[in-house]
Amino acid sequence: MNYITKKFFIILAILTCQNTFAQDNSYSGLDRAFISNQLRKSADQIKVLASLTPDDKFPQTFVNGKSVFSNSSWWCSGFYPGTLLLLSEGNNNDKELLKLATDKLKFLEKEQFNKSTHDLGFMLFCSFGNALRLTGDSSYYNPILINGAESLSSRYSPNTETIRSWDHGKWKYPVIIDNMMNLEFLTQLTKITGEKKYREIAIKHANKTLKNHFRKDYSSYHVIDYDPNTGVAIAKQTHQGAFDESAWARGQAWALYGYTMMYRETGEKVYLKQAERIAKYILNHPNLPKDLIPYWDFDKDKLPKESKAYSKKDLRDASAAALYASALIELSQFSRGKDSHNYLSKAASILKTLSSSEYFAKLGDNGGFLLKHSVGALPLNSEIDVPLSYADYYYVEALLRYEKLL
Ligand code: GLY
Question: Hey, what domains does the chain have and what are their CATH numbers?
Answer without folding.
Answer: 3-405 (1.50.10.10)
